[in-house]
Amino acid sequence: xxxxxxxxxxxxxxxxxxxxxxxxxxxxxxxxxxxxxxxxxxxxxxxxxxxxxxxxxxxxxxxxxxxxxxxxxxxxxxxxxxxxxxxxxxxxxxxxxxxxxxxxxxxxxxxxxxxxxxxxxxxxxxxxxxxxxxxxxxxxxxxxxxxxxxxxxxxxxxxxxxxxxxxxxxxxxxxxxxxxxxxxxxxxxxxxxxxxxxxxxxxxxxxxxxxxxxxxxxxxxxxxxxxxxxxxxxxxxxxxxxxxxxxxxxxxxxxxxxxx
Length: 260
Ligand code: MG
What we know:
Helices cover 27% and strands 25% of the residues. The chain is of the alpha+beta class. It has one domain (7-244): Alpha-Beta Complex (Creatine Amidinohydrolase). The strands form four sheets. A five-stranded antiparallel beta sheet has the order 8-7-9-14-15. Helix 1 runs antiparallel to helix 2 (37-50). The longest helix has 23 residues, at 7-29.
């Protein structure tokens, strides 16, 4: 069931969205060679609770941490660990914060030191895919228009589009209807209407999009070991067009470079 939000509810939602972006920025500032993903998780969890919010991911379906931290060939749902980040890595951090009854959900792939030009290109195009998807989030369009925009841009660059993990409605809980795939056909799927709030989150790979889950039951990796990038914002569909709820005073985007 798709829950439609009133204009007032969308205003309230912005509190959770803004905090979620601040949380993601806080995580990104910790990204540098030598730090472990667990250290980032611990700081982020404290930051969220200090602001009177609760981590959106901790305990969700049994997930053990406050952030998903997915390094290089890890696509999504990486569990923070003693893994030490090294120069040239990329790390996708997915953070959510719940406050005032609403859940913000956003993700960003940061550079650890200086990744290769090829890997930076993957990140830049994946962010462009997110922007292209958001541009389609207008009343009267369909879910398939978002997926088509994301997929066609990614595939034009020869990248892989992950099929099994998709965007979703967001509201009082992290995952609501409808699913928002990163692939699709124009004019297909649920018709978008004013008051829907969805997380758009392209997951794009340098090589194959085929993937599997590690023995920990969570971490999803590419089958060929190629890196993946993941960018996400929570977006409201309004009569004036898409409104990104996961933005703070610095806007809806983070720097690519970690540690700043
Ligand atoms: Mg999400």
